[in-house]
Amino acid sequence: MSEEKKDKRMSLINVNRTDHFCMLVSNIENAKEYYNNLFNWNIFYHPINNKTLMVETKNLHFFIKEVKLYRDFFALQHYSFEVEDISEIIMILDQNNIKYEKGNFSSFKFNNYTWVEWRDPDGIRLECIERLG
Q1: Which residues make Cβ contacts (< 8 Å) with residue 78, sequence separation at least 6?
Q2: What is the mean pLDDT of residues 60-66?
């Protein structure tokens, strides 16, 4: 389909942005400690489910839920968070001896970025990005 035809299609649902997601982990206590130490988020237990955490900041909210799944499933997850300064994230990762990879992604029309990514204790791929121009 040509770009012109794509632009003229009628959208049934117009989405502004992702509101929240649910991250699946193998151990809720380990996840709470890891994410709280690394990001310093406000993390608290869901009011009716002690195997689910609620994460909230001014700009972000999501859930972390403990589930019993095979190890490879956790490693298939990928979460990306936009930050102001990617160099600060790299400094924090270095200070905590967390191995990471970094690079640039410029294949989108509107949403290109520089990125750094690493794996949490469950093998979940975490990424922080800083928007380019």
Answers
A1: 124, 125, 127
A2: 94
